[in-house]
Prior knowledge:
The complex is a heterodimer.
Chain A lengths: L1 H13 L20 H15 L5 H4 L5 H11 L1
Helix pairs in contact in A: 1-2, 1-4
Chain B lengths: L6 E4 L5 H12 L3 E6 L3 H11 L6 E5 L5 H15 L4 E4 L14 H29 L2 E6 L3 H4 L5 H21 L4 E8 L5 H4 L3 H9 L9 H12 L10 E4 L6
Parallel strand pairs in B: 1-2, 1-4, 2-3, 4-5, 5-6, 6-7
The structure holds NADP nicotinamide-adenine-dinucleotide phosphate (NAP).
Amino acid sequence: xxxxxxxxxxxxxxxxxxxxxxxxxxxxxxxxxxxxxxxxxxxxxxxxxxxxxxxxxxxxxxxxxxxxxxxxxxx
Amino acid sequence: xxxxxxxxxxxxxxxxxxxxxxxxxxxxxxxxxxxxxxxxxxxxxxxxxxxxxxxxxxxxxxxxxxxxxxxxxxxxxxxxxxxxxxxxxxxxxxxxxxxxxxxxxxxxxxxxxxxxxxxxxxxxxxxxxxxxxxxxxxxxxxxxxxxxxxxxxxxxxxxxxxxxxxxxxxxxxxxxxxxxxxxxxxxxxxxxxxxxxxxxxxxxxxxxxxxxxxxxxxxxxxxxxxxxxxxxxxxxxxxxxxxxxxx
Lengths: 75, 247
Ligand SMILES: NC(=O)c1ccc[n+]([C@@H]2O[C@H](COP(=O)([O-])OP(=O)(O)OC[C@H]3O[C@@H](n4cnc5c(N)ncnc54)[C@H](OP(=O)(O)O)[C@@H]3O)[C@@H](O)[C@H]2O)c1
């Protein structure tokens, strides 16, 4: 469930197909995101899941899986 | 009506240049949020003038150097108008003195209102504009930030800071359809310059190729251009409005 929602937000943010987004995809290397895309995406996810992602944690979120795990552990 | 239906926030719009910008935007069809920090009656008069153009206008008190107050203001304007299309960071003060006599307090005060105020508003509004994928931010710097001025090291530092800030944010937000530019006024007749002696005014005027001090409306015309679609391909620039004083 969380993965699907995250997938949807990423697709929306980056204008790509949900099918291209897997748990292993790296935002920058595989999905072509730039640093501002990531900030925007995390802001959208914070709103969606009603969580706070501190900057120190945000830096560690490299792949889609990292984000899904973070949300699972902090919801 | 270059700004029909747009919403603009102008900081320090109760008097001087900010007032002229707010009224020129209202005349061009924009709804205007008139920010001020202490001149309530003057701010209310600006609103009364603005609504004559058939737009919505309101006063919003906030100290630009206080991030929380700024964030609340942005939220209030967004809730009321649904978008924020234009931000003008105009609020500013001077506390002139020779460096040897300048107190730390006067340095901090000028930095906090001019420089940090611009940071506060730009940061808070950029969240909104990035989502909109559109916006115009106009920062009022000064020619003093480019050429320096004896007796204004605090003010010149803040204004030079605003120019560097403008260029950096223009680079960060360009891909999101947001234009960020600065205006550097020269010698403009407002309360800020009314304190200067006739002799100094004359000296200034002599150094201006167009041989007159500027009017707040001269600056407002440039702000209107930078707020309108006519400047869609311009970002990260500093436009001097100074009668040719600096070139
Ligand atoms: N006049 C010039 O020759 C000249 C030249 C170059 C650049 N500039 C710049 O142009 C801008 C406007 O200057 P001006 O000549 O119009 O000055 P002004 O007539 O003294 O007006 C300053 C405005 O800023 C507001 N303000 C001051 N502190 C504030 C705060 N903490 N929070 C919110 N608003 C605040 C004032 O509102 P309240 O009265 O309500 O506090 C007032 O509306 C400034 O950034 C100035 O540095 C002016």
